[in-house]
Design brief:
57% helix; two-stranded antiparallel sheet; mainly alpha
Length: 324
């Protein structure tokens, strides 16, 4: 039993059910605040001046910032208000929110609310600790002799950059590791498996790390590395199919099954051809009615939220309406 198992046994009620719903709601609020700030409607910046993780302000009594920095929008808007780019940014955010809500919900169902909540809160805790460390290290520096209070300047600068973007991206990496063959439709047209998108994510993170080193941007680099370490720790100490070893065994069993199914398929007729056998299927999707005889590469799973034993194929597992 690893330490996460022991924690779960000791604090079985820890965690927030449907946590991703609250995360998305906070990001929506943060995006609205960001749009107001960029519009110039107010003589101050709501987020940077009152909500960001500015430890100089926190040490002067604004302790609510330790929580309100979570309102930092996942997608920063930096265009001109009223332009077409504003609409595209909002549309992209809506797509992001929908996809990540589905991903977070699946992870919570697979891990349980304890592990999913611990994963997310530990990521938040790391951002807070990293921001505090950078503030303490650089708050006594000389800011170019410009007569600027270094602690105030560093607190504002680092606090406004504190965000959970990289933590949210590791949610997709976790999903891709557990369900590598689930297809996403880029631009609603191009089908791409989750594992290939995960490679793209890792490539972009690697590129960002290189840029951080080149331009001495140490704070973003620490956030990226911290999010990846948090992701790695949870999968090293995961259990069952949620672990790296379990996911590997599951893929190995799937490939073995597909190989045997392909061999059987080549020796038999298609189920819907005249004279072909129609029985013998072990799995059937409750939505489309397809079985493993229709396509040996189909994956089938039961839905834990449906009232009854309803089985769905991989195309309808996350898109069906739950039976109550």
């Amino acid at each position: 039993m690893n330490f996460i198992d022991r924690l779960e046994k000791k604090f079985p009620r820890f965690g927030i059910t449907n946590l991703m719903k609250y995360v998305i709601c906070m990001n929506i609020v943060g995006t609205v605040i960001q749009l107001i700030d960029m519009s110039g409607m107010l003589p101050f910046m709501i987020y940077n001046d009152y909500l960001s993780l500015d430890f100089n302000a926190i040490f002067h009594g604004q302790v609510w910032r330790i929580l309100t920095f979570i309102l930092h929008p996942t997608l920063d808007y930096s265009g001109n208000m009223g332009s077409s780019s504003a609409f595209l940014e909002i549309l992209w955010f809506a797509i992001w929110a929908f996809v990540y809500y589905q991903i977070g919900t699946v992870l919570e169902r697979e891990w349980g609310k304890f592990r999913f909540s611990l994963f997310y809160f530990s990521g938040i805790f790391f951002v807070i600790i990293a921001t505090l460390a950078f503030y303490l290290v650089y708050s006594n520096m000389d800011v170019g002799g410009m007569g600027i209070d270094a602690s105030e300047y560093i607190g504002y600068l680092v606090g406004s950059a504190a965000n959970l973007n990289y933590l949210n991206q590791t949610l997709f990496l976790a999903f891709a590791l557990m369900f590598p063959d689930v297809r996403f439709f880029l631009y609603f047209i191009i089908p791409v498996k989750a594992k290939w998108l995960a490679y793209v994510y890792l490539g972009l993170m690697a590129f960002q790390l290189v840029k951080c080193v080149m331009y001495s941007q140490w704070y973003p680099m620490v956030l990226i590395v911290g999010a990846l370490v948090n992701f790695a720790v949870f999968f090293i100490f995961a259990r069952g199919t949620s672990s790296v070893r379990g996911a590997y065994k599951q893929r190995k069993r799937r490939k073995s099954f597909e190989k045997k199914a392909d061999a059987a398929w080549s020796q038999s007729k298609r189920p819907h051809e005249p004279g072909a056998p129609t029985g013998g299927a072990r799995h059937k999707c409750a939505i489309c009615g397809r079985t493993e005889l229709d396509d040996p590469r189909l994956e089938f799973r039961y839905c834990s939220k449906c009232n009854g034993n309803y089985e769905y194929c991989s195309d309808h597992l996350f898109s069906h309406t739950h039976v109550q």
